[in-house]
């Protein structure tokens, strides 16, 4: 991107780890642009589309479910799971007992 810097007087600073910066710079170099160019392009895209140029999202539902299952298995192994119960009364009695 060879735009003049005449009107470019605002500076953006962001902290990233050195390895990530180097990897990004290497990829961008192959594309023929600098990291500064990429940041300017992203800012312009945000302005143009009035949105982020990527879609932030939560982990996929299957990842969420897999983590919930793993957490439940850990709870079972650690003895933090009660039951099964044959009735609501058994459940209530278990909840009310002092451990």
Description:
The chain folds into 2 domains: 1-55, no CATH class; 61-96, no CATH class. It contains 4 helices and no strands. By secondary structure, it is an all-alpha fold.
SSE topology:
Elements: H1 18-31, H2 35-49, H3 61-77, H4 88-96
Number of strands: 0
Largest sheet: none
Which geometry do the CA atoms define? elongated
Strand content: under 5%
Determine the structural class based on helices, strands and strand pairing: mainly alpha
What is the compact description of this entry?
By secondary structure, the chain is an all-alpha fold.
List keywords for this structure.
99 residues; mainly alpha; 2 domains
């Amino acid at each position: 991107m060879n735009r003049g810097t005449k009107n470019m007087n605002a500076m953006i600073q962001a902290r990233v780890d050195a390895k990530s910066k180097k990897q990004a710079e290497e990829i961008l170099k192959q594309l023929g642009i600098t990291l500064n160019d990429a940041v300017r392009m992203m800012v312009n895209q945000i302005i143009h589309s009035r949105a982020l140029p990527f879609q932030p999202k939560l982990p996929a539902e299957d990842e969420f479910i897999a983590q919930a299952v793993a957490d439940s298995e850990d709870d079972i192994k650690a003895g933090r799971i009660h039951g099964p119960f044959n009735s609501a009364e058994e459940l209530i009695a278990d909840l009310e007992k002092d451990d």
